[in-house]
Each structure stands twice: as structure tokens, then as C-alpha cells.
Design brief:
578 residues, mainly alpha, three-stranded antiparallel sheet, two-stranded antiparallel sheet, 43% helix
């Protein structure tokens, strides 16, 4: 019996060893073989493009918590200050290296860059043989554009970042690359180099919506040079006293190319933010989103960056984030049709539908901010009330309109999360023309800057009858007379004000303030006034009593804690956060 048992045990062990060996040598299922994938360059390029919309509310690639909630345009919103980790971004004083959202954003953007690097290796190794030399070259230019796009976001956010390109990927040096190997300007130089290659190679137009083009590259090149033209990003060495005229001229060169292209102003401001116009002549480059009815999929390609930003009680899962500030509403006030630069924020005011007063408003207010008594996105059957605010005692009663469709069009996904089929603009034509006007002011081209600003204001003036006729008797907007553009200081104020109104709630405001070197002055004044907000007897925004912006520290976001200590000693922290 003992002998039989020994034989059975030996057989079992042999079979087990054999089974283990067989299991180890079986190729894993559901995993893409990297070398096989590399042999398909067109598919690798598509995978890189897919990362444009590979976002989520905790790492929104459009950066709305960092460009809007961190500015004077917007309150975070939601159920309260502990809802998500974005509260420190809007009060600045408690911002540290630990928010998981910062870490996720860093990680996901580098995932996108990794896709781009892999696609570039695939194109270099197999592009000519599989696609032909000309198409392979174009695809390489597209991927370099995409890589520069993701790096621009990282540099905008974190300043000190590791530059990991396709060569670092080939040599497996991703985890050996320091974030202080290059200066801020050198990193911009590498990004600009990628965009320049795209600019030289890509066609002016692409057959497929959403592909990078020469005009998209020109827009990004203008943005890069404009950012550098104002200084190094820190307030002490940024602003009017640090302007580089040569860099401003490059902004003019690239925006001139865009101005003479097929792109232009869409006739009605409201149409820009309706899904049926998402790839109009206004759209130079946008992250493409779709409804399930459009692409015959289960849920469509939703815009997950904005999934929290639907209005409470209007949408099936409206989480009520991204709430316009009273300061922003006040900025739309007009006096004799022009902005009230000095006294706009002296008194908190807001329009009431059907009750016009002596206070008139720029029409863009009604396209940008949803307010009680007014239709939600132009549809009277969905008129807003005070009940359409989730936490009015904290965040007030306003709601954001640009990033959502009309309620009758529905959401593309509704349970347990909500999302919309709204494209995310990376560049629209008006944005590029505002950059041109900014550069013109600083280089002495005041007359042309006035023409651009007045063209934009004329479009706003023409944008009443089609969508917001109910507010016609509350709107008044006029063009700037020559006297407003007779000197640089006044012209600069006009251009910067126009940018705020035109681009409000499109995630750029904080980065604009930083570029102009006025973030601390603007934000600390805003914190002082906004904490006293009252709407129809309801106080809100009182938490801003704890807010403070510190120049020399807060200009850039901190390198996330997890990244700093994943490989100790590899990364240096931004100053002020050590």
C-alpha cells in the first residue's frame, strides 16, 4: 500500500510539473502583443488619437478645475467643499502635493504620451513599408502634434516635467528621466519642435474631423510663443515688464496664417456651443465626441471631462459642478454698451427674465450662464428656478451652459453617470484671433487689434434674435471707439476683458491671468468680494474667506506626491511646495 501511494504521489507531482510548464508557456489571452501591434502603424496612430478623449471627471483633459474653478470665473460646485478633491484648487491656500486628482492627471497624460511614442516607433520601423513614404510622414506629423498637445497640458500645469520621447521609450529610460533636466523654455522648445514639424508637413484641411492639421499646429505655435512672450510663468518675472517682442512677432506670423485660412467666425455665438455645429468653421481643432445614435454604439463617445457639469434637476444625473461666479456675471454688465471696467463689481446684480432694468448686459451672458427665471440653453420648457441648484448656500444659483447640449437633445449616457456628446474645443477661430489681438497691442498694432475686438463684439451683438430673443430688452453692446485703442494700457484692458467674456467657462481664465502676470492681484481681490455673495437673500461662497493666492508659489501646480516618491530622488518639486 505504501509503495502504491509513493507511485501515485510521484505521478501526481510529474503531472503537476508538466501542467505548470504548459501553463507558463501558453500565451496570455486578451493581451495585445507589443511587437505585433508595432507592425500595424495605422492602428497605432489611431490608438494615439483615442487618448484625446480618454478622460474622466477626476482627470479632465480640458482642465476645467484648474483653469476655471481656480480662477475668478467659477466656483467648484457639487454637494459641498468635500465633493471631489478640487476644493484646494479654488481656494489655493490649502493646495498641497497630495490631491489624487493631480496624480491621476499627471499619470494619464503620460499614458497618452506613451501611446504617441509607441506610435512613432511603429511609424519609424514599419511606416514606409506599410503606408508608403508620404502617408507615413504625414502620420508621424500627426502623432508629433498629439504628443506636443499632451506635453503642453503637462507643462501648463506642472512646469517641471520629465521629457520622455520615443528614444527614451526604446531605451526603457522612462523611470530614469529627471524632471529638471531641461528648463521651462527648453521644454517649450521641444514642444514647439513637434508642432513645427506638424506645421511643415500637415495639410491645411483634413478629410476626417478631428485629425491634426496645419492650421491646428499654427494655432498651437501661436499659443506657445504667446505664453513665452510674457515671461517665465512666475509673477515676479512675468507680465508687461518682461515682454519679448520677437516672440510676439511669431504670434502674429502664425495667427496671420490662420486668419487667411478657411476658418472664420460662426455667425451666431450661441451656435458655437450646440452639437449640430461642433465641426463648423469656428472649430480649428477639437476633441471629437459622439452620441450613440450617431456612431451606432451602445453609449457613444462621451465627453467624460464634463460629466459632473450638468445642471441639478434638469438632467437625470446633474451633479451641478462648474458654477459661474457672481464676479463673472458682473463682468458682463455694460454701460452705454461698453464694459464698466472700474465699477462692474461694486454691486452684485443679475438679470431677471421679463423684468428689464436700467442695467444692461453683454448678450454673451445669456449664452454662457444659466440663471433662475431664464430658459436652460434657450428652451422655455426647461426654464430654470432656484430649485435647480444642488447647494445654493455654498455655490449659489448659476449654472454653466457652454459644455452641455439642449435638454431636449438628451444625454448620451445617463446611469449611473451622465455624459454629453459635446466636442471639447482645443482651438476655435475666435480664440486664435484674440491671441492675435493680444500680440498686436504689445507690438503697437492698436488699430488692427481694435478691428479684431470689434468684429468679435459685432458677432455678439448679432447673437440675440436667434436664441435669446427673450433677453433682447436686457442686452446692450456697442463697438469700441478709437479712443479706447489710443494707448497700449487701455487697449490691453479692452483685449483682456474681451477674452474673459468670449472665452468664459472654457477652461482658460486662470492660465490667462498667470500669463499676464496679474493672478495674485486679481484672485485675492476676487476672494475678498466673492465671499459676500448674496442671491435673492441667500448668502453663499463664504468658504472663500479661507482663500489666498501666493505669488512665487501658486503659479504652477505641485508635482504630485506619488510621482515624487515613486522613485525617490528622481524629481524636483516646484518652488514653494517643498
Amino acid at each position: 500500500m505504501k509503495k502504491i501511494f509513493k507511485y501515485m504521489l510521484a505521478a501526481t507531482l510529474l503531472l503537476s510539473a508538466s501542467a505548470c510548464d504548459d501553463f507558463i508557456n501558453v500565451n496570455p489571452q486578451g493581451v495585445i502583443d507589443e511587437e505585433l501591434a508595432r507592425q500595424n502603424p495605422e492602428e497605432m496612430v489611431t490608438a494615439a488619437y483615442a487618448m484625446l478623449g480618454d478622460c474622466w471627471y477626476s482627470y479632465p483633459f480640458n482642465l476645467w478645475p484648474y483653469g476655471d474653478a481656480a480662477s475668478d470665473d467659477c466656483l467648484k460646485g457639487g454637494s459641498g467643499t468635500t465633493d471631489t478633491g478640487y476644493h484646494p484648487m479654488e481656494i489655493w491656500a490649502t493646495l498641497t502635493t497630495t490631491p489624487g486628482e493631480l496624480d491621476e492627471l499627471w499619470y494619464r497624460l503620460y499614458c497618452a504620451i506613451s501611446r504617441c511614442n509607441r506610435a512613432l516607433c511603429s511609424l519609424q520601423d514599419y511606416g514606409a513599408s506599410k503606408l508608403g513614404t508620404e502617408l507615413a510622414r504625414q502620420r508621424e506629423a500627426e502623432v508629433r502634434f498629439l504628443r506636443a498637445h499632451f506635453y503642453f497640458k503637462l507643462l501648463t500645469m506642472f512646469r517641471q516635467i520629465p521629457w520622455i520621447d520615443e528614444e527614451a521609450y526604446r531605451q526603457k529610460k522612462e523611470e530614469q528621466t529627471r524632471n529638471d533636466a531641461f528648463t521651462y523654455e527648453q521644454l517649450f522648445g521641444k514642444i514647439i519642435s513637434d508642432f513645427e514639424m506638424a506645421y511643415e508637413v500637415l495639410p491645411e484641411t483634413q478629410q476626417d474631423d478631428g485629425r491634426a492639421s496645419k492650421m491646428a499646429a499654427a494655432s498651437y505655435l501661436a499659443k506657445c510663443w504667446l505664453t513665452l512672450a510674457w515671461g517665465d510663468g512666475y509673477e515676479a518675472s512675468n507680465g508687461v515688464g518682461h515682454i519679448n517682442q520677437e516672440y510676439m512677432q511669431r504670434v502674429l506670423d502664425y495667427t496671420e496664417v490662420v486668419r487667411n485660412s478657411q476658418y472664420g467666425y460662426l455667425e451666431d455665438f450661441g451656435d458655437i456651443f450646440l452639437p449640430e455645429h461642433k465641426n463648423s468653421k469656428e472649430s480649428i481643432f477639437a476633441v471629437q465626441c459622439s452620441d450613440y445614435k450617431d456612431d451606432n454604439t451602445t453609449f457613444g463617445r462621451a465627453n467624460w471631462s464634463n460629466m459632473l457639469n450638468g445642471c441639478w434637476g434638469i438632467w437625470s444625473c446633474g451633479w451641478d459642478f462648474h458654477k459661474p461666479s457672481q464676479n463673472l456675471v458682473n463682468a458682463f454688465k455694460t454701460k452705454d454698451g461698453l464694459p464698466d471696467f472700474i465699477h462692474y463689481n461694486d454691486v452684485a446684480d443679475y438679470p431677471v427674465n421679463g423684468v428689464p432694468t436700467a442695467q444692461k448686459w453683454d448678450p454673451r451672458l445669456f449664452h454662457t450662464v444659466g440663471m433662475p427665471t431664464f430658459p436652460y440653453k434657450y428652451e422655455e420648457e426647461y426654464t430654470l428656478t432656484k430649485a435647480n441648484s444642488r447647494t445654493p448656500n455654498t455655490y449659489g444659483y448659476y449654472t454653466s451652459l457652454k459644455e452641455v447640449p439642449q435638454r431636449s437633445k438628451g444625454e448620451t449616457f445617463s446611469q449611473p453617470w451622465q455624459a454629453f456628446a459635446m466636442n471639447d474645443y482645443v482651438f476655435r477661430f475666435t480664440d486664435v484671433m484674440l491671441m492675435r489681438a493680444e500680440a498686436l497691442v504689445e507690438t503697437g498694432g492698436l488699430a488692427e487689434a481694435r478691428t479684431i475686438i470689434n468684429d468679435i463684439r459685432q458677432r455678439a451683438k448679432n447673437s440675440v434674435a436667434k436664441h435669446i430673443a427673450y433677453a433682447a430688452d436686457q442686452c446692450e453692446i456697442e463697438l469700441y471707439p478709437e479712443s479706447y485703442f489710443a494707448d497700449k494700457a487701455t487697449a490691453r484692458q479692452c483685449v483682456q476683458w474681451e477674452r474673459r467674456l468670449e472665452m468664459a467657462m472654457e477652461s482658460s481664465r486662470y492660465f490667462d491671468l498667470r500669463r499676464w502676470g496679474i493672478a495674485s492681484k486679481t484672485l485675492n481681490a476676487y476672494f475678498e468680494s466673492e465671499q459676500n455673495d448674496v442671491y435673492d437673500g441667500q448668502p453663499y461662497a463664504q468658504y472663500l474667506k479661507d482663500a489666498h493666492y501666493t505669488a512665487g508659489k501658486n503659479e504652477f501646480y505641485p508635482i504630485p506626491y506619488n510621482q515624487m516618491y515613486y522613485i525617490p530622488g528622481l524629481y524636483s518639486q516646484n518652488k514653494g511646495y517643498e
